User: Fold DUF5107 domain-containing protein from Acidicapsa dinghuensis.
Amino acid sequence: MSDLRISTAWTFHGLQTIVLENRYLKLVVLPEAGAKIWQITYKPLDADLLWNNPRIRPAKHTIHARYDDVWSGGWDELFPNDEAGLLQGEHLPDHGELWTGLWEAEAFANPDFVGVHLRFQTPISSFLIERTIRLRSGSSQFEIQYCFTNLNTGPYPFLWKLHPAFAVSPNHRIDFPKMQVIREPAFAGSLGDAPLTFPWPHATLSDRTVDLRNVPDVSSRAILFFYGTDFSAGWCAVTNRSTGLAAGLRFDPSVFSSCWLFASHGGWRNLNVAVLEPATGYPFQAQAMIDAQRARWLEPGERLETSVLFSAQEGLSSVGEINAKGEIAAARDE
Assistant:
């Protein structure tokens, strides 16, 4: 008997949902709220892996809404910009055009997997965005296949950023591969005394050295924002050391050339969340990214296609690798 289930009958706060499920994972996708993945539940431990804002429900939003004030959590996608501003002579909204979009959604199923194909044409930047989520039978992993097509008559620069918000606590550890950390000067947060660049994971402050893998208590009022670059492999992960459950993303580093971290441990609006953000470039200001030649470009009619693998796995207290099959190995320091 198959462990696969798919449902389109449920609504969540008035929003259409698509629920994909097998014996290990349950995914809730909200096509009318930017096609966000609202929640990923690891069923054997009844563990919700994504962070949902306790004060804000998911909803439909107008294209120029202020992201921070309506952010409900889950896994969003940002394109073609982060900070609101001019790009190619047009004013782009805060955090881009995807998260406010009403996406077309087509659910599908066969004996081996269930999934949903999502489709959206951006109203300003004129791109066709396609995402296909597949959850296979008996697997604690799922894959997202992406296709971005430039519908403009000229070349177009952009930032594309995954934005999964993970639920964290002092029991959690955050892991990246070996990489270089670049602080954002405009957002010092809790790392204002640290060098502008330093190797992950230790930040040297004026009075102490901080291991950034460890999640502090919300009483710390900590807040972090930086770009990870020059990494040795394409993955990022969090681990709940009290339950031994790790979860992370495996991605192509030739597409996602940086991985950002935004984390608030009580320091921003009393919230506790870690957003691990594989990105095609940096910094968050579009023109600065273009001037530094870190923007991704597509020619007219050109496509960018790639896939991202999400994995959950028990029996770990850290992550040192997520291989191409999605298998998670512990860090060598454990």
Remarks:
- Residues 286-291 form the longest helix (6 residues).
- The two ends are 39 Å apart (CA to CA).
- The CA atoms of residues 320 and 331 lie 4 Å apart.
